[in-house]
Specification:
The protein has 258 residues and is α/β, with parallel strands linked by helices. It contains 11 helices and 9 strands. It binds D-glutamic acid. The site of D-glutamic acid has 17 residues, from helix 3.
Length: 258
């Protein structure tokens, strides 16, 4: 098969990266995709960085073995732990990562208060601190580690009283602070966007990096002459380390119902 016609490999620690996949499909519907979720090992964000680096490299290998033409690391945690390593291993191969969408959030006003929800690892790693240093004079940025939230999405619990109570407890320390913007710095969180919106208030804008990552992927494919010339709608194949029917059903629900 010609290289341009090969699928794009997209992966995450679990099902969260489907929030990036849906942006990719919306932007480049004629491409073919293989989405791999490592739900067996999720969550990554509370593990140590060496373990996540190893798991991320295995995820990438799983897709590369299938002949993908590019890799999208649809996971903030895996990007912060291992995207540099992947780029060293696979030189001259397009590897696109994701980072918390701080840029548009900081632009909501004059020195806004911005909460960045993400996994403990993303917020701890150097990549986030470098990103923060670009914006800390323009905004008051509050990192909010959210251990436990990924698990709600992994079991398909994307709404309801229990989830809202959990989110309220995460945001308890901001009850007296006027928050101007919230960054969803983990690809699982867009699936609980409505519940987050309810807890932080309807007027607070929420930002995620899915659409930006999709645009960056398109730019990279164009730059390398790798866009699929076929004009027809492409395919999406889901694969998951859990190999259960339930997880594949959840993947397809998340892609189509949100
Ligand atoms: N979806 C991943 C992210 O964007 C993290 C989930 C996890 O902790 O496994 O950070």
């Amino acid at each position: 098969m010609e290289r341009e016609q090969r699928p794009i490999g997209v992966f995450d620690s679990g099902v969260g990266g489907i929030s990036v996949l849906r942006e990719l499909v919306a932007l480049m519907p004629n491409e073919n995709y293989i989405f791999y979720g490592d739900s067996r090992n999720a969550p990554y964000g509370i593990k140590d960085v060496e373990t996540v680096r190893k798991l991320t490299c295995l995820d990438a290998e799983h897709l590369l073995k299938q002949g993908v033409k590019a890799l999208v690391v649809a996971c903030n945690t895996a990007t912060s732990a291992a995207v540099d390593e992947l780029r060293i291993r696979y030189k001259n191969f397009p590897v696109i990562g994701i980072e918390p969408a701080l840029k548009p959030a900081v632009a909501v006003g004059q020195h806004p208060r911005v909460v960045v929800m993400a996994t403990p690892m993303t917020l701890r790693e150097e990549k986030f601190h470098l990103l923060l240093s670009q914006y800390e004079e323009q905004a008051a940025v509050y990192p909010l580690p959210c251990p436990g939230l990924v698990e709600y999405v992994e079991r398909g619990e994307t709404q309801g009283a229990r989830l809202e109570a959990f989110l309220k407890s995460l945001f308890a320390s901001f009850s007296k602070v006027k928050v101007d913007a919230v960054v969803l710095g983990c690809t699982h969180y867009p699936f609980v966007r409505a519940a987050i919106q309810k807890v932080v208030g309807e007027q607070t804008p929420l930002f995620d990096g899915g659409a930006g990552t999709a645009r960056e992927t398109k730019r990279r494919l164009q730059a390398e002459g790798l866009c699929n010339p076929c004009g027809q709608k492409g395919t999406v194949i889901f694969q998951n380390s859990l190999e259960s029917k339930e997880i594949l059903q959840l993947c397809s629900r998340l892609l189509h119902n949100h």
